[in-house]
Amino acid sequence: MEIFLQQIINGLTLGSVYALVALGYTMVYGIIGLINFAHGEVVMVGAMIALSVVQALIGAQLGLPPGLVILVGLAVAMPICMGIAYTAERVAYRPLRSAPRLAPLITAIGVSIVLQNLAMIIWGRNYLNFPDIIKPSPIEFGGAFITDVQILIIGVAALIMAGLLLVVHKTRLGMAMRATAQNQQVAGLMGIDINTVISAAFLIGAALAAVAGVLVTLYYGIAHYHMGFILGLKAFTAAVLGGIGNLGGAMLGGVLLGIIEALGAGYIGDLTGGFLGSHYQDVFAFAVLIIVLVFRPSGLLGERVGDRA
Q: In terms of CB atoms within 10 Å, which of 80, 255, 267, 295 comes out highest?
């Protein structure tokens, strides 16, 4: 039972990150039907920039508290990620809005490759270590252990997801997003600025990506120019699992995918003598993607058109 509870805790932590990234996918897809495969690279850029800022502040020996140092790194990374997302939408995606679906999809892959290579040029090919400024303190819970870092990740993700739901369902911007998701032409006739709404979706998704990048770097202690590729694919899997275009589905899919990975790596890894252990946890994520696409393409919660945003 202790092992099961431990894997659930690990899965919730990982799933919280997946959910944050999946929300970026599902917001954009819900409004314009675009699968933004460059979103994972925005997460990577956020992680690398925040890590660089943290390293610079530690090197300057200003004596700042660790929490403040990380917040400063996030405060620098977030607007840069939002700027990248806005530029990509304005330059690469907006001109192709009326093109066949394959054209913007290929463009998104191209933007992803460009961001990866720019990151490799700037930060190099090697893994970058997060400064050891926060030492996780384990807390026993029912025979399992959860660290304060894991509590932070789960708590921050939960607050952000709740705040996003409030924005989408209780604000004028959220109402405009839901109207645009239902019918862009009619929303435009009703006085909604479609371009502003779409840009806002990209900006919010990029802000969430920056937070996810900082959290995942804080959790694993490393960052790499290629880290956004697999993370982005898994978050896309989470969005499909829950129902892409559905905010609640993205959250549910992210958490479930994290738990599936943790349980698969823990239990199935033990049964196979480690052959399908943590090094092969990606197998479980993409096996879930195949199963969902074959048996329930709309996802667990389906695609609620009226709530898409």
A: 255
